[in-house]
Each structure stands twice: as C-alpha cells, then as structure tokens.
From TrEMBL:
Entry keywords, A to Z: FAD, Flavoprotein, NAD, NADP, Oxidoreductase, Signal
InterPro entries, alphabetized: Amino_oxidase, FAD/NAD-bd_sf, Retinol_saturase
Highest taxon, organism lineage: Bacteria
Pfam family, one: Amino_oxidase
Domain Amine oxidase: 19-384
SUPFAM superfamilies in the cross-refs: FAD/NAD(P)-binding domain
Entry protein name: All-trans-retinol 13,14-reductase
Protein's organism: Dyadobacter arcticus
Length: 510
C-alpha cells in the first residue's frame, strides 16, 4: 500500500477473508473492478481455515460439502469461480454419507439422492411411507422458493415470504408423524444448523438437507484449498489480499460516505465501495455505531446468535483406525433437539464425528474430529484474553485444565460408540468458543452466526445494504451459513454492483 499522498483508491475494499469476502472479491475482480481484501488473521478463509498438529491436518469448520454433483448449484458456482477442477474432493458413501446413531446403538443411514434417501428410510419405517414421501416433497417444494439456489433470478424477495420462512422445522417434522424415532432421524443432523426447537425455520433445514442429498463430498487434505484456489483467481484478476490487517474504524466525507478504513497500526486504505464480511454487530462497532439508526443498531446487537462449539481433534497411531467415508451424528438423548440446551453433567449429549480424508494414509484415518455444542458462558471467565497466530496471547493453566477435562469427557462418550478407541489415540487437541471467537471475529464464537427464528422472520433478516451509502454486508448472516449459503449471500451482495441477470447467466453457462 502506498503512503497517504499518492495512495491508491480501490473500487472495493472488503473487510474479512471468510468465504463471503473471497466470493465477493472473486465476482468483482472478474468483472474488472480493483479489489482489496483485508484480513486480521494469519490465515485467510474464516471457517475454511485448517491447522496442523503432530503432522495431522485439521479443519476448523468445513468437514464436508453438498450440492457438488455435476450441474448442482455449488458445482456451478465453483465452476464459475474457475476453481472447480482444482479442488480435490472425494465423494462420500452412496448409501450412507451420514449416519444418525442413538444411545441404544441403532443406526439410520442417509443415502445420496432423494429417491435413494426416501427408499432407504422407508425400508426402516415401512409403516411411515406417506410421512417420509411428504417430507421429501416438502423439502423440494420449499427449496424451489429460493431462486438463487436454483440458479434463477427473481424480483421478489422470497426471504420475506412468511409462508416459507414462518414454517418451523421441529413443528413441521412433528406434524408428519407420531413416530418419535422417525422424527429424531429426520432431524438427526441438526448440528449442521444448531437447530433450536421453537425457532429454527424449516427452510433452513430444507436447504441444507437438499444440498447434502445432491452430492456429499469431503475435501481431500482439508477445506482450506477453497480459500487458496479462490485467492489465486482473485490475484489473477488483479485483486489484492492482505493478511495481518485489522480494520478498527472508518473515515467519512460530508455526504456520509466512507472514504477509507483505518487499521490498528494506523495505516489507511481508501475505497469507493466497502463490503464487510464481519458479523453485523461487529461491523457496527468497526464502522461507528453513531452512523447507524438506533432501531437498526438495537435490533442487530440484540439478536441471538447460534450456540458455539467445542471441537476435539484426535490424531491416531499409524494404521490403527480405518477411515470412515461417512459422518456420524450421535445422540445420547431421547430428543435430538435437546442437545443445544445441554446439561453440563451429562455433556456431550449429541455430537458430530468425522474422519478427514488424507491422501497419504488412504485406507486408514489419520485423525478424527468430534464437534459438539458448547455455550460461550462456559468460557466467559477467559473472555478478556485472546490467542491467535496474528495476535499471540497466553491463556492460563486453568483454561488448559478446563479444556483437558472437556476432552476427557468427549473421549469417554466416544468409547461408547468405538470401544477401545482410546488405545488408538496418539494426541488430542481441542478448540473452544474462544478459539472460534478469535479466529472468526464474532463476539461469542457462534457457530453459524445469527439464529434464524420462524416466529419473527423479518427481525432476523439482515439486508446487504446499510444506512451508510457505500457500505454493504455479506457472509453467513445474510442468506444462510455453510459453503453454499455464504456463496449465495455473496451473489446477493454483488447484485448491487453487477446486473443480476447477466451474472446468474454466467454461472449457468460456466
């Protein structure tokens, strides 16, 4: 960056290099705009970040991806971005990419593709054929109401259609059948959106389920390759990405437009348009709370976030544990929706298990990731500390002891699913809500940002446009979280600058 006098003014300054920021930078640089992405951390990619311990690679957020069969929406988006053929992916098991497992040892697999999924579930619940068929038809019907997920453009804002957004996931599934086990199986992967019984809308469940049923894949050797490949495309089109650049405030002209952002080291970056890929509540802090209407500020800052997580990574002794080409959603409770409001004594009551696919170990698993819910309140006493590669800090021995105790609790539960697994473990590492808070840049380590609420849909909707004329928002709080949801939100953000009909056509023609 040049000194202030002859400083370059970018067409777009993007704050945060999570997938939303990278996707916006990709779209806009491909359209010929000058773009710079500013990232406070040492690694780009937000939830796409990986880290290495004991020669094992661990994903922090992306454990598998959906909609990657040929012609599906994410497949087309990645093709448009010019990264599809560079991504190393492995298709998960056809008949069981996800397995919903219960305390009694019973297992119910999800098969890929709606027909197989339906057929297989009916074989477990023959008397519930109508309920299962109705459920699948409803998912397809709801997903049709979201144009961009079908690579179509609409002038209507379906996000606000209460008939769609007001339908509650738990209640709708419960209305289909009295069979408790089937209800639990249909909602069994609700860790994917941190489902809350009376709040999570059915459309969130539907869009995510349809995505995974349309091609479930793992990233070979970690999900950070998305960020790496996208950053290459951005640079090929003249875009810039700068790490260790923490944006702390902004300066304005007399028309109330941002002229430049200020970094924590005093540097400034000038721009015409600004896009924040940071949580909306944190964006308000950065860009100056006095610039936003009180009613907006109070609403956004008062919104409940989804719960955080405790993530345990274990490395295995060589060739001791076979690779699983599927995930397990394990529930030790009677109702799969109750894991969010867990009891600390019997925690973890519900958790996700996966083994990353590492090319060099192939048939054997190099490691395993176990993800379970954790309320940020549990780590609140250390909330004034921070520890990242970019901003190194030490947390006390009490915190390390807390993590250790939690790791032991998780592994003890894991023994019930995989007896004897403790003998195969070489090393254990974990990440708490504080880790996610520091690396992702939200206030409480929330897994998926703002909690959507079917009871007040308009309140939990965040518009990409803000009161500041040249500040737009993007990321998981706009449309939906996850790789697909965030990619869609980046397109919604960019529609303010690029003709949406032309842009979506480019994706379809990719």
């Amino acid at each position: 960056m040049q000194s202030s006098a002859g400083q370059k003014e970018y067409d777009f300054v993007i704050v945060g290099s999570g997938l939303g920021g990278l996707a916006c930078a990709n779209i806009l640089s491909m359209e010929g705009h000058s773009v710079i992405v500013l990232e406070k951390n040492h690694q780009i990619g937000g939830h796409l970040q990986v880290y290495s311990r004991d020669k094992s690679i661990f994903d922090t957020g992306v454990h598998y991806v959906g909609s990657m069969d040929e012609g599906e929406n994410l497949y087309q988006f990645f093709k448009y971005f010019g990264v599809l053929d560079k991504l190393k992916i492995k298709r998960m098991d056809e008949d069981h990419f996800d397995v919903i497992r219960f305390d009694d040892g019973s297992e119910y697999p999800y098969a890929q593709g709606f027909e197989k999924f339906e057929e297989q579930l009916i074989s477990y619940f023959p008397e519930e054929k109508t309920a299962i068929q109705t459920y699948c038809a409803k998912i397809i019907e709801i997903c049709r109401k979201f144009p961009l997920y079908n690579l179509e453009v609409s002038n209507e804002n379906y996000q606000m259609d209460d008939n769609v957004t007001g339908l509650n996931a738990h209640d709708y599934i419960a209305s289909l059948t009295d069979n408790e086990k089937l209800r639990n199986v249909l909602a069994g992967s609700n860790l994917l959106y941190a489902g809350v019984k009376g709040k999570t809308p059915f459309y969130v469940h539907a869009l995510i389920m349809k995505s995974y049923l349309s091609g479930a894949y793992k990233f070979i050797d970690g999900g950070s390759q998305i960020a790496i490949q996208m950053s290459k495309v951005i640079r090929q089109h003249g875009g810039e990405i700068r790490k260790h650049k923490k944006v702390v405030s902004a300066r304005y002209n007399e028309r109330g437009e941002i002229t430049e952002v200020v970094l924590d080291n005093g540097e400034t970056v000038k721009g015409k348009q600004f896009i924040s890929n940071v949580h909306p509540a944190v964006s308000i802090d950065i860009f100056g709370s006095e610039r936003f209407l009180n009613v907006y500020k109070n609403r956004v800052q008062g919104l409940e976030n989804t719960i955080s997580t405790f993530l345990v990574h274990i490395s295995f002794r060589e060739k001791s544990f076979e690779y699983l080409n599927y995930n397990i959603y394990q529930h030790h409770i009677d109702n799969v929706w109750d894991g969010v409001s867990y009891d600390e004594e019997t925690w973890p009551q519900t958790y996700f298990v996966c083994t990353p696919y590492i090319s060099r170990t192939d048939h054997y698993a190099d490691s395993m990731s176990i993800m379970t819910y954790m309320n940020a309140k549990e780590t609140a006493r250390w909330s004034d500390t921070s520890s990242t590669v970019a901003e190194p800090g030490e947390r006390d021995t009490e915190y390390l002891a807390f993590k250790k105790a939690k790791e032991i609790q998780v592994i003890k539960k894991l023994e019930e699913v995989f007896p004897g697994i403790s003998d195969q473990i070489k090393a254990v590492h974990s990440a708490s809500p504080l880790t996610f808070r520091d690396y992702i840049g939200n206030r409480d380590g929330s897994l998926y940002g703002i909690l959507k609420d079917s009871g007040s849909t308009a309140r939990t909707q965040i518009n990409t446009k803000t009161k500041i004329p040249n500040l737009h928002l993007t990321g998981q709080n706009i449309s939906l979280h996850g790789i697909l949801g965030v990619t869609v939100s980046a397109f919604i953000t960019c529609f303010a600058f690029v003709d949406k009909n032309i842009l979506v056509q480019k994706v379809k023609n990719a």
